[in-house]
Design goal:
alpha+beta; 6-stranded antiparallel β-sheet; two-stranded antiparallel ribbon; 8 helices; 8 strands; elongated
Length: 294
């Protein structure tokens, strides 16, 4: 006897045991399996995919609390991060300022084919009737400038009126006094040559502000002092001139005010000295001799 074939509709009409489940997930999965088995749905039909998953998610309150915590942490750490970034930028600018000065004065030596700054035309400004103009003329030969002290620069417009020392106290004296030859390079660095000291002793001291009118306007951060040796190198003597504060590192620059940093005889005798003062180097130690007749 031939077996009767049923249509899909007839198969759907056949009853099967009802299965009850305790959870909504089980009911949905059971329904999907029942429909698949009854209607013999193909794998391309959505009902054939019976793998239901319950996805966990954060509530709105949890998200808001998390964002609040992130905001608090950011507010606490952001100022420190910004200060660290500023310190790194200023450190790079200080190194560049020293490099610009050293390259410039070494170029002065090379252009004049001499080995000592005392042999350059810059020292012809001694006793000049217009020493400031003489200094400017020699500097414009080696430095590219966009402004200078002789061209009407005013402190209020181009230079900070007040600086702070390493302890946060205002400096008493005006840094950019009329006796300085001041010039500004295209990168915004401001330099000031101490003309009276240069004329009277032959020592070349250059003040530098590495970011001009911008803050922090603080000693050893953006305000530096360099001593130009006879060989044209630029030594940082800022903390020998100003109070850099309790955290200032000890100076390692060989200079007249810090002869103990000189490690060789050549460094010691290359220091510029006032009239009547000499340098002595014995047993690896550089020292100053006053009332020197030699």
């Amino acid at each position: 006897m031939k077996r009767k074939k049923f249509t899909l509709a007839e198969r759907a009409a056949h009853t099967q045991p009802e299965i009850r489940y305790n959870t909504h997930f089980q009911e949905k999965k059971s329904l999907c399996e029942v429909l698949t088995s009854r209607f013999l749905l193909s794998s391309s039909n959505n009902f054939s995919q019976c793998n239901f998953q319950i996805k966990a998610a954060f509530t709105l309150a949890e998200v808001l609390i998390t964002l609040g915590i992130i905001g608090i942490v950011a507010a606490m750490t952001l100022p420190t991060l910004m200060n660290n970034v500023q310190d790194k930028v200023l450190e790079s600018q200080r190194q560049k300022a020293a490099s610009v000065l050293a390259n410039g004065y070494k170029k002065m030596l090379a252009d004049n084919e001499v080995f000592s700054m005392r042999e350059t035309p810059l020292y012809s400004c001694f006793g000049s009737s217009d020493d400031l103009l003489c200094v400017e003329t020699e500097h414009k030969k080696i430095f590219k400038t966009i402004y200078s002290g002789i061209e009407g620069m005013t402190v209020n417009l181009d230079l900070p009126e007040q600086y702070l020392d390493g302890n946060g106290n205002p400096l008493q004296n005006n840094i950019w006094n009329p006796d300085l030859y001041v010039f500004v390079t295209p990168d915004g660095y401001v330099y000031g040559l101490d003309v009276p000291t240069f004329i009277n002793t032959g020592s070349i001291y250059v003040i530098s502000d590495v970011n001009g009118i911008k803050n922090p306007n603080t000693v050893n951060k953006d305000l530096l002092v360099y001593n130009i040796s006879q060989s044209g190198t630029a030594g940082d003597i800022t903390c020998n001139i100003f109070d850099c504060g309790p955290t200032a590192p000890p100076s390692t620059t060989c200079s007249f005010s810090n002869p103990g940093a000189c490690t060789t005889r050549d460094e010691c005798f290359a220091i510029d000295t006032p009239v009547g003062v000499c340098m002595r180097f014995e047993n690896g130690v550089c020292s100053v001799i006053y009332n020197c007749s030699v």
